Amino acid sequence: MRDTTSILPLSVEGLTFEAGGKRLLDGVGFALARGGVTALIGPNGSGKSLTLRMCHGLMRPSAGHVGWAVADGIVGGLKRHAMVFQKPVMLRRSARANILHALAAIGLSRSDRNARCVAALERFGMTDLATRPARLMSGGEQQRLAIARAWAMAPEVLFLDEPTSQLDPGATRQVEEMLLALKAEGVTLVMASHDMGQVRRLADRVLFLNRGGLVEDAPTSAFFETPASAEARAFVAGDLVW
Amino acid sequence: MDVTQALSAAFGLVFGGDHAFYAIVGLSLTVTLSAVVLAALIGLPAGALLALARFPGRGAVIVLVNGLMGLPPVVAGLIVFLVLSRSGPLGSLGLLFTPAAMVVAQTLLVLPIVIAITRQLIEDLHGEYREHLASLGLTGIRAIPTLLWDGRFALATAILAGFGRASAEVGAVLIVGGNIAGYTRTMTTAIALETSKGDLPLALGLGIVLIALTLGINAVTYAASRVGARFAG
Amino acid sequence: MLTKRHLMTAGAALLVLGAAAVAQDSRPSATTAAPAGTRFITVASTTSTVDSGLFNHILPLFKAKTGIEVRVISQGTGQALDTGRRGDADVVFVHARAAEDKFVADGHGGPRRAVMYNDFVLIGPKSDPAGIKGSRDIVAALRAIQTKAAPFVSRGDRSGTHQAELTLWRDAGIDLAATRGSWYREIGQGMGAALNTAGGMNAYVLADRGTWLSFRNRGDLDILVEGDKRLFNQYGIMLVSPQRHAHVKQADAQAFIDWVVSPEGQKAIADYKVGGQQLFFPNATDSGA
Lengths: 242, 233, 289
Description:
Chain B is an all-alpha fold. Helices cover 78% and strands 0% of the residues of chain B. Chain B has a single domain (3-232), classed as Orthogonal Bundle (MetI-like fold). The termini of chain B are far apart. Chain C folds into 2 domains: 35-117 and 233-282, Periplasmic binding protein-like II (D-Maltodextrin-Binding Protein, domain 2, 3-Layer(aba) Sandwich), CATH 3.40.190; 119-232, Periplasmic binding protein-like II (D-Maltodextrin-Binding Protein, domain 2, 3-Layer(aba) Sandwich), CATH 3.40.190.10. Chain C has helices at residues 2-26, 47-51, 54-66, 77-86, 97-105, 138-148, 160-171, 176-179, 191-201, 209-214, 250-261, 263-271, and strands spanning 39-46, 68-75, 91-94, 113-125, 152-154, 184-186, 204-208, 221-225, 232-239, 273-274, 277-278, 281-282. The chains are: A alpha/beta, B mainly alpha, C alpha/beta. Chains B and C meet through helix 2, helix 5 and helix 9 of B and helix 1, strand 2 and helix 9 of C.
């Protein structure tokens, strides 16, 4: 019997991060409701990755607050949000063992682990790869495995930090298909991306960050058609943003 | 003396059916392997802990452990001797001049190697795994089992290095074991004894057997870890 | 995958069993040489008795009679007495009368019983640069070595042989501290190592006859001086004080001492020969020894 209490909405307020006397994130705030794909975009160093990591609890903000509807986004002892990194972290084990390890880490029973692992591999057509050493798989296979591994944990929210920036177009397309499938299942996705085409294809909402501040928060089509700020206009146009 | 004499001595030892010799080989392997197992049981978690923990004086501890990799065996032997002597703090255990004392001394020699190499390997691996493990809630010492398991093939090298040091040393086992015939005589102390008796062919023959054993164990472990590493990527 | 994991588990279990086996071994009641329950005593003795093979000859006889195993640690006399002083042995069996008397007088053990003697021989290269070959006067020979500054290897390890050597230099009227030069080489090691070193450097060296006769790496070395009364080397045996060290196995240790000085033990010592030569001459009944 799974507790179906939702950890959403997520309310991010005044998120600020300072390191080495520099303010890298400056009062970012937004609310996240259930469903859909939210894209974090902006130039390098704008604070996209920092924002994701703080939402996921990997880093503590210097000031500000990440407020889940349920404390820390944990329901019944299980963390209901997961994260996929730019460079997938693959343990030195088989694909299957990678998934089982994550499920064991979050405290699932052995039978639950096996069932979910089999389901995840089947769900994304990776059953053939189950016994392959994960680190010997291609970059695309690794990222798909990372997403399958995250999916196996049944998260309500999935954070993704530029999940396709190191992949070739074919692998990128496969990963995007996976993400659309997750979206269709009702998983709430929050992803950082540099790929504006990808943002247009996947995202329902855009958060545009520049120099640590949230500059624009708009529906995707509106953002690309009528950017409100000069920085966003320049960014969309492909100009350098300062 | 020439090398053929030594080789024929080695051959005679291995195939001569001399039970005293087999007992010496058996004791050498048992003592050294026990020391390596003990050092691994202590050193792997300790090295991993040192890799992940942040505390004042951590740098000094790392320098100390790295330095102790070069601890002279006679010094390790002397320390264990003084502690286990009947006049020492643990004298009542009656362990001096027993195989157990030799295991303790060799563990002391192997431990810094295992800790130092483990610390380095785990620190590197943790750099790679940290965010993923933290995402799974495996922070701090809860990351250690995953890191040790995933570092197992590289860590085998650390353990082999420790094995090499223990199997080759004579200073520590001589002091704490006493080279008692049939009880604490190992390959290396037997070599020292035969050298002092001037029976150089026999000493060299024992040396050849010891080198062959060490090479064999290294080869097997190396091959196993290579096969495993290829599997794990 | 499953089988691999199982193999690893099995391997780990084996290693742990091995460690357990050693732990078992190390209990005083068990040895690799004998089944569990063996009685044993520990004897701190000198390199001369061990390296010459004397113990290999007499200990099995004692064990057959009493069932007591004797574990011998071979050290220099000074170190062996220290081992007794610390209580790390039950019996001390050495050869340096003055040091033995002090050991007893200080209450570390005793009483001292005379056991046997052997003799020292002056070993040197056949080329004999000091020209002492055939002499029966050890004191004159040492003076010649010092005068010619011929290389001389000293044990330098406080062993009985080292102490005997120092006594002989004093008898020769030579003050080593004042006159020694690079010709006098202290190595701080056992008899065998000293002989190996002397062979390598074409040097003179004082050795006990037993070690010399069993020594295999003679190279160019030979006996140059022997037969001087001053070269006799008396061995004594002492029980380590059970008053100081309660764990000393008094009964079994005393049994060994009694056997060594008994007619049976004395005969066993006399019977030990290397190359047809008797090495040790029992004299437990000689009240002056």
